[in-house]
Amino acid sequence: MSQPEPNVDEVVRSIAEETDTPTETVSRMYADTLAEFRNEARVFDYVPLFAAKKVRNELRQKHPRKH
Asked: How many domains is the chain built from?
């Protein structure tokens, strides 16, 4: 049984809010990362999750939160 696809708009909005990054930037990064992962994947169930995690981590490294 495969995992349901996440709502892309929700994923992008969540990452944008968490990393203080414009949604357009996050959307482009997510789409590019998702395409890259899908191109290399043999199993697709968790590809959207991994793509979101990679984008979130990259943006957090570029824009660390100030506490």
From this structure: 1
Structure tokens at 57: 């981590």
Is 54 within the bounds of a domain?
yes
Q: 40 pLDDT exceeds 50?
A: yes
**Short-list 59, 53, 61, CA closest to 21:** 59
Output the pLDDT for position 63.
Answer: 76
Provide the token pair at 32. Answer: 């590019």
Domain that includes residue 52, residue range: 8-62
User: Angle between the 23-40 and 47-62 helix axes, to the nearest 10 degrees?
Assistant: 130
Q: Identify whether the C-beta of residue 23 lies closer than 8 Å to the C-beta of residue 12.
A: yes
Alpha helices in the chain (DSSP H): 8-19, 23-40, 47-62
Please give the mean pLDDT across all residues of the chain: 90
